[in-house]
Amino acid sequence: MSVVPLEYLLSRRSTKFLKSPGPDESQLAQIFQAAMSAPDHGRLQPWRFALIRGESLGRLADMAISAIKAEGLPLTPEKEASNRRWLEELPLLIAIACKIDHSNTKIPEHERMLAVGSAVMNMLNAAHMLGYGAFWSTGLGSYVDEVSENLGFDSLDYRFMGYLAIGTPIKDLGPIQRPDFTQFVTEWTGS
């Protein structure tokens, strides 16, 4: 295997503050196709996505902020303004959900959610390899049923898992310092 893909993988970082341009339709297709390579026990293909771009981003802000307030959840005026500014700059947001197939009792829900998480990780890597920044957010009403339902993900049949933002980084953040993996690895010998 070539060293270059591994270097891309090791240099990926989450980048929240993004601007236009975002991926074109061909690049977006590549990003979604990368999701299809995720591990998927039982080939359930539980990932579901909804594209949000253009004027729809402002409508998402209005809807999500209204739903958060209706739930009585804390949302300061500063946080509301911050969310709106973030969405104004963003070229693309992808809502992410896990489809729950109630007829399949063999594969547990958490394995389906892991498959969706793997698909999103592939999308993050693909966006990075195409030269874009990306950020997986569980803000903006991700845990408010009204938000997921308004996005087409009824809480009886889906687990809403947040949003993937993709665009051009507003500024170069430079290399990121990662922890040494040895802090997290042990070897089990069975003895």
Automatic annotation (TrEMBL):
FMN binds at R12, R13, S14, H41, W136, S137, T138. Its EC number is 1.-.-.-. Pfam families: Nitroreductase. Its cofactor is FMN. It comes from the Bacteria. Binds 1 FMN per subunit. One of its GO terms (molecular function) is oxidoreductase activity. Keywords: Flavoprotein, FMN, NAD, NADP, Oxidoreductase. It is an enzyme of class 1 (oxidoreductase). Residues 10-167 form the Nitroreductase domain. PANTHER family: NAD(P)H NITROREDUCTASE YDJA-RELATED (PTHR43821). Belongs to the nitroreductase family. This is Putative NAD(P)H nitroreductase.
